[in-house]
Design a protein that fits this description.
By secondary structure, this protein is of the alpha+beta class. It contains 8 helices and 9 strands. 31% of the residues are buried.
Amino acid sequence: MTRSLHVLFAAAGLVAMAGAQEARYSVQDFQERRASLRQEYAQARTPEEKGKILRQFKLLLFAPRYAHEPIMIPTPPGQAFSEMEQKVDRLEGPVAMSEAERAKYEARLARGEIVTRTWTSRPGVNVEFTEGLVDLPLEEFLESVPAADWGINLAGNVGGEIREAGEGRQIERMVLSMMPGVRLDITKLESVEMERDASGKPTRAKVRWEVVRSDNGRVFMDVGSVTFEAAGPNQTRVRFHSAHQLRVPGLLRTVLGQRAVDAITRTALGHSFQKYIDTYRKISEGKAVARRRQVLE
């Protein structure tokens, strides 16, 4: 699968960053370093000097924590969040399965498997549906991984920020490392919905999202949700359901064909979302430490 991902993204030019030493930058660090490089470039006299500075600038742009300022969009009106939620709701629905298939599916979940299904809805647009059980009651799970912190605790999240945008709404910038040198830099609108029983205990939490910006241009479309719901008294059921359209160079589509590119993308999506649920499991088992959000005003 890793080789498939490499083939898919190599032509995009990102693998050139694979050997770079990763550095983490605060916003102030980034701005100061960017200003310094711009000044050095203006003073450079030879093409060699300018080329060296440009290479340093590219390394700065692809640093794990930031590619530009943290969140490059203004807080949108509430209508934008409502439209996003409607898009997610149109995407969702029960995955078609016969009774026998459903029984086998549930048996796999009960055995501890993280089960994923992927399909292509139209050329270039691929959908995943991934579920797994975590051995922790929902209330305890949400204490360790609050629903609004779902994104910062994803496997491969190497940086980002969150800006609150009203009750139950936020804008999240995340940089996801899919493999060395391959990063998706995306900003999402997110809404968090919580359901509780008569006693006030949570029974279900759901986060809907839509990507509205990709600072490195690798994502055209990404819309979906993650749901955490009680599965009996001692387990939490985690479900991801999302649709994706990634930027793939035209030459690569010509060489491999769209069907092959979609097949590679589906494999990558299934693997990634299985890893996300596995990371939640590790946090619940004390094998990994949950990250806590840094909220921008």
